[in-house]
Amino acid sequence: MNPLPRMLALAALITTVAACTTEGTPAPVAQAAVTPVHAAGAAVPKKPVTVKKVAAKKAKLEIADITPEGEAKEKVGVGFPIIVTFDRKVADRAAAEAALQVQADRPVDGAWRWVTDRKVVYRTKTYWRPHQKVQLNARLSQIPGNEAAKDVSRRFAVGYSNISVVNTRSHVMKVRRDGKLVKSIPISAGRGGMVKNGVDVYLTTSGTHLTMNKKPLETMTSAWMGVTDPKDPQYYKEEIPWAVRISDSGEYVHQSAGYYQYLGRSNQSHGCVRATPAGAKWFYGIAQRGDVVKITGTKRELDWRNGWGYWQLNWTEWKKGSALTKSAVAKKS
Questions:
Q1: Which of 80, 104, 154, 208 could disulfide-link 311, Cβ–Cβ 3.0 to 4.6 Å?
Q2: Which of the residues 171, 209, 270, 272 is marked catalytic?
């Protein structure tokens, strides 16, 4: 018997059975592992590739604030300080200070002084010259280990030289603009008589003040001396026009709230410099942050840490607060 027909039938049966396995889930098909081979024919073991993520390097020191504002927002007076506040405690003050450079159109000597772990102040030896531009460049990326930081710049505009002298004994404030006497205003200063912790807080402080800010109407209360009860005879709360702040302890040059009979004659205020309505409004109108207000004639001295009282320190004392030995002023090219 010819075995060929039986062999063909058997082969057909095997093919049919194999084809049934395609219904449902396909059966896995074993495949030979593929091993990469070099051109020379040697097999290379396959290894998993590990991708390392490198975190972006963060700056260790940035600037949180610069005072005053730039030239587009304000003009400043000839006594103005440059105040730089960092975003954290400064470990290397010398390196940070070296990164701060000041350039002026009409330069004068100046130096930085550290007043806190985060804040440094630039003051000149003599007043800035008026009507010029001053540039601060903070090259933070040049501080070792701080290369990721962004450099910061600010340009200041110096306006008129407004220098006022308040004589608390003759009760007058004389204002000079660019060296010329332009106004004499009758005033009334602090009367004294309220002693707290050995300090007569009702006396106006003598010394070189700088104007810090101003408001057309300021609410003034007795809370600064701890009097908050309206029934207390020393309590007061008043809306005062044309208020120009000259210290952190609550001293202003402002319009007198009545009591005009004392202006130019005697001291009757709680420590502020009261002026006539016309005089106060005029002074408010010309006031720039950083203008100089010198007060004389009282026994209470302005502390150099009170507001912007930085001119209370002489030049030698001021420079002792620097972390560097050389001035940071650079002549503008």
A1: 208
A2: 272
Domain range enclosing 214: 162-302
In the set 171, 209, 254, 270, the catalytic residue is: 254
> Up-side HSE of residue 249: CA atoms within 13 Å toward CB?
21
Residue 254 known to be catalytic: yes
Model confidence pLDDT, tens digit, residues 237-285: 999 999 999 999 999 999 999 999 999 999 999 999 999 999 999 999 9
Could you say which residues of the chain have pLDDT below 70?
1-57, 325-333
Tallying the residues shown for the chain, one arrives at 333
Task: Evaluate whether 133 touches 104 at the Cβ level (below 8 Å).
Answer: yes
Number of domains in the chain: 2
**pLDDT tens for residues 44-69?**
455 555 556 555 567 789 999 999 99
Active site residue 38: no
Q: What's the CATH number where 199 sits?
A: 2.40.440.10
Residues 308 and 91: beta-carbon distance below 8 Å:
no
Question: What's phi and psi for 60, nearest 5 deg?
Answer: -90, -20
133 contacts 76 by C-beta, under 8 angstroms? no
